[in-house]
Amino acid sequence: SLYHFSFHKSAIFFHVERAPDTRELVIIGVDATKPFLELGVVSADGKRLVHKVDLKFNRCSLSHDMGATRSYNVIIDHPLIVDITRVIKGGQLMKYEEKATARIGVMPRYGSAESVKWFEVEPNCTFHIVNCFEDSNEVVVRGCKAVTAIIPGPDWGQDKFEWFSKGFKSDDADGLTESGYLLHRVHEWRLNVATGEVKEKYLTGADCSMDFPFINEDVTGLKHKYGYTQVIDSLASSISGICKYGSVAKLHFNEEINEQPVKAEYHKFPENTFCTGSTFVPKQGGVEEDDGLIITFVHNEERNVSQVYIIDAKKFESDSIAILTLPQRVPYGHHGVFVSMPNQA
Q: What does the DSSP assignment read for 182-207?
């Protein structure tokens, strides 16, 4: 088990990313006490920890995801801070500190803390990365960015409906003051490792909130044409006080035009039906990046029925090619993953 490589016995989070080409596993562990974040590299066979480093953070940033390109590890350091001393003083354990800095680190695969090149970026909270890849001197990072964290604390107030409802309104998605602060939009950072320049922009509009991205895992760490996300039903989420995903989206990164949002296709579910655990399954012998199936678990709240929808990624907006009814409920928040297995004789 990969968890045998856990760095610190009290680690509160552990993430794994597979590097392209070498198939090594890049892992991070986050802890509320020092060392706040450690990174390691595990051999492709999963048996040996071949590199380990304390990145010498001076705070516990809840870094929920990371990336790996051909040459680099990509580290997210946003100001969603876990602070035990704040609890002792009567505050919350976890808080988004909007005035603190946000940065992204680019680190050689077997680098040290000193080898990380840090790029300060616009304040944000990015839980999930779509993909990272190298493009000449730039490391390109695509992720689902919000201007604050969806994880609340006492500062939000007791009326969850009020702040959750306002947070998903799309009329002011770039500000913290009025509304739109919970919208997650697919964002791109271009980090020039030669000059230190940062270029960043949104790739999707403020008309809907997208999160839990996924891709064809064969292009992890490589330049890619497509990405997929779950799409929040803002009204249903506001009413219920939890995130509910009423559709999935296919994003065409290769059809980007200037500063306009990239082309997006949507596969919408029936009314009061919401998904969780979506993943891409490549077709055997597939040639193109989107030769494959989208598999997602859905729940119909009116009929209290959980199902699996299977969608042709090339005919994304068409009806599902198969729907499987499950014998029991699959809870929201379930994460899906596809792992290929050798054929059994």
A: T--EEEEEEEETTT--EEEEESS-TT
C-alpha atoms less than 13 angstroms from C-alpha of 333 in its C-beta half-sphere: 3
Q: What pLDDT score was predicted for residue 100? A: 92
pLDDT band at 11 (very low <50, low <70, confident <90, very high): low
Q: SS3 string of 20-68?
A: CCCCCEEEEEECCCCCCEEEEEECCCCCCEEEEEECCCCCEECCCCEEE
Of 292, 18, 209, the closest CA to residue 132 belongs to 18
Partner residues linked to 100 by β-bridges: none
Residue pLDDT, tens place only, 234-279:
888 888 878 899 999 999 998 767 777 999 999 999 999 999 999 9
Which residue in 200, 162, 198, 199 sits closest to 181, CA to CA?
162
Place of tokens 């199936």: 293
- H helices then E strands: how many in the chain? 3, 23
Q: CA 105 from chain center: how many Å? A: 16
**Tokens standing for residue 178:** 């009025």
**Residue list, annotated binding site:** 15, 64, 128, 335
The annotated binding site for Fe cation is made up of 15, 64, 128, 335
Residue 87: what pLDDT? 86
pTM of model > 0.85: yes
